[in-house]
Every structure is written in structure tokens, then in C-alpha cells.
Amino acid sequence: MSYQGGNLWSASWDAGTASQTHHVLAVSATDATGRTSMEAVDVMVSAAGTPSNIALDSPTEGETVSGVVSVSGLISDQDGLRAVRIYIDSALRSEIPLQGTTRSFSWAWDTSQMSNGQHCVRLCLYDQA
Ligand SMILES: [Ca+2]
């Protein structure tokens, strides 16, 4: 707690470490004669957002691919979806706008321009919260 002069003070509380339910924040003051008064507020702690689920159905881990390959899967987020970005190795190759909370996606990857060998398909999901 820090005293800011006069009758002003402040204290910080890390709600990020608190359980996601109601909490009562209370403060009490005692004057020079020993009389005490207390004030309390009820607050609700909730998560900043629920985590997303991403399932990449195609291609599968270690699969040998050639020609045009479908990069597809299913994603969901209870906070709402915004977009999924598809990267091949570190290059952004496609951005698919999304709405709702559960969507399948599909993108046609022409692998004929790629060198033979291992490549990494990476998905970045953007949600509403
Ligand atoms: Ca979320």
C-alpha cells in the first residue's frame, strides 16, 4: 500500500493470480482514538479470454506431399474467431478471415514451387479475445 498524501492511498492487487469468482476487497482504517471503520467492494474476476483449439487435418505430420495439397483443419474459440494465417516455413502464404466460434478452413498449397525436403506448415489464429 502506498500513501499519497492527505487522505489518499492506493494498493495494487494482482487479479491474474486470483480464482475466477467473486472476491471481496476490504479496507479498514483506525484513527488515533482507536475507532475503526471498514469499506468493502465485491468484484468478479474472469479470464481475459478462453484459449483456442486448432486441429490441422491435412497435411499430417511427416506426410510426403506433391502437387497441390489441401491445408485444412478445424478451429474454434468461444470468444469468436477473426482470422487464421497460414505460414509455410516462415513466409505468410494465406490469411483467411473467419467469423463465428467454430470454422473449418482450407487453402490450396501448390508445392511444385517448393524445394524437396522438409517444410513447416504453421497456423496463427486470431480470436476476438
Ligand atoms: Ca480466445
The CATH first-level class of the largest domain comes to Mainly Beta
Bulk shape: rod-shaped
Task: Report the sheet-strand fraction.
Answer: over 45%
User: Remind me, CATH topology of the largest domain?
Assistant: Immunoglobulin-like
State the total count of DSSP E strands. 10
Description:
By secondary structure, the protein is mainly β. The chain folds into two domains: 2-44, no CATH class; 53-127, Sandwich (Immunoglobulin-like), CATH 2.60.40. The chain is built from no helices and ten strands. The strands form four sheets. The protein has a three-stranded antiparallel sheet, with no helix packed on it. β1 (2-3) and β2 (9-10) form a beta hairpin. The radius of gyration is 26 Å and the shape is rod-shaped. Bound molecules: calcium ion (CA). The site of calcium ion (CA) has 7 residues, from loops.
